[in-house]
Design a protein that fits this description.
The protein has two helices and ten strands, in the order E-E-H-E-E-E-E-E-E-H-E-E. By secondary structure, the chain is mainly β. The termini are close together. About 45% of the residues are buried.
Length: about 170
């Protein structure tokens, strides 16, 4: 199967399997990166290091967020992959509940490996972050991800992980 034919991301959480419909027509470079990191196993065992109730769950720090190798709570959320940062691929799609967006620094062209899943609509993010997918099954499992400390920007002391991430 050619890489461009891979359109469903699966994320195994402790509570169940989440399926995400990828949007290669909307964010081709970001979808390509997600597929590359997923098929290489880089997202396996990576923590949801920043989880804000009523907003989103952030994960994907393959450098400092792997709970089996390289976990560093104080650095989780500051790392990325060995790949170059990606240029923004903003669209008119809204950040609704279940949307997946790429996390980035202040520079719009600084997305790399980290991403977030929306618990609720967050339309204030529209046109500011690259949206690359939507949860199609298992949002009830996403809702069970351990929340972080609201007073510490959602930092999680004992975070849940993406046990296994695949693409089909």
């Amino acid at each position: 199967m050619a890489e461009q034919d891979l359109k469903t991301l699966t994320i195994q959480l402790k509570s169940g399997l989440v399926e995400v419909s990828l949007l290669p027509d909307i964010a081709p470079k970001h979808v390509e990166r997600i597929i590359k990191l997923s098929t290489a196993g880089h997202y396996d065992n990576v923590a949801f290091h920043r989880v804000i109730d009523g907003f989103m769950a952030q994960t994907g720090d393959v450098e400092f967020g792997n709970m089996k190798s390289g976990w560093n709570k104080s650095r989780a959320g500051t790392g990325g992959s060995s790949e170059e940062n990606l240029p923004a691929e903003f669209s008119k799609l809204p950040f609704d509940r279940g949307a997946l967006g790429m996390a980035r620094a202040q520079d719009p062209n600084s997305a790399n490996s980290q991403f977030f899943i929306m618990f609720e609509d967050g339309h204030f993010l529209n046109g500011q972050y690259t949206l690359f997918g939507h949860v199609t099954k298992g949002m009830d499992f996403v809702d069970k991800i351990t929340r972080g400390d609201q007073t510490d920007n959602g930092s999680v002391d004992d975070p849940d992980i993406m046990i296994k991430v695949t693409v089909k």
